[in-house]
Amino acid sequence: MPVLVESLTAGYPGVTALEDVSLGLAPATVTALLGANGSGKSTLFSALLGMVPASKGRIRIFGTDSARARRRNLVSYVPQHEVIDPTFPVTVEQVVMMGRYPHMGFLRLTRPADRDAVDHSLEQTRLSDIRRRSIGELSGGQRKRAFVARALAQRAPLMLLDEPFAGVDRTSEQLITQVLHDLKSSGTTVLISTHHLEGVHSLADEVILLHRKVLAAGPPKVVLTDEKLAQAFGEALS
Ligand SMILES: Nc1ncnc2c1ncn2[C@@H]1O[C@H](COP(=O)(O)OP(=O)(O)OP(=O)(O)O)[C@@H](O)[C@H]1O
Q1: CATH topology classification for 1-74+159-168+191-238
Q2: Per the database record, which ranges form the ABC transporter domain (predicted)?
């Protein structure tokens, strides 16, 4: 099992963002994590990345803990927001090459395999034509695709994407959806968080409804019922 979360409780001083959360992600599947604002989606990503500690329970990623899984390049991650300085002169291809850093030595010498991975990731996200443009000059959708391309270049067997469709145009949304389908076909396990219900049926094999606890988990047609969605989105977190 690529990801196994067992009775996880985690959060911040004075805030229990996740309570007794258990879930599993099967190999080569796309799972959508759905929940209202503040339901704990980003915190779950942080916990899977080893950035928020568990106060109870545990996480196993390919049989090891989160920190070790990252060090072994088993996990790639597309954050919800990436803080970038628009005046900092970094190009699209340089951003994507950063995805190769885990494969490089201390001196970060690029090898043909690194350049091939970058070229392919730029093609998959349709950014080849603007690869030399500064990242600060891109639209929100193009910038999101650049961060998806960086994660693709990493070629890790698990990819986490926090709100990949938030604030992107229709073209970028379709491209990212295609990338997720391709990843699954190539054996990668994918977890995305979203609060957009549209498209989840065709995109996800499994859906997890989160509201600090797991309210429901399973195939979209089982989980996405009016009653369960009202529970997840209709009630304020108490
Ligand atoms: N760094 C932090 N320090 C303290 N509390 C936090 C921090 N980050 C999140 N929280 C709190 O933890 C809870 C879960 O937040 P989280 O960001 O995980 O939710 P989310 O489902 O990702 O929300 P959104 O859809 O708005 O991104 C919220 O009550 C939030 O206020």
Answers
A1: Rossmann fold (3.40.50)
A2: 3-237
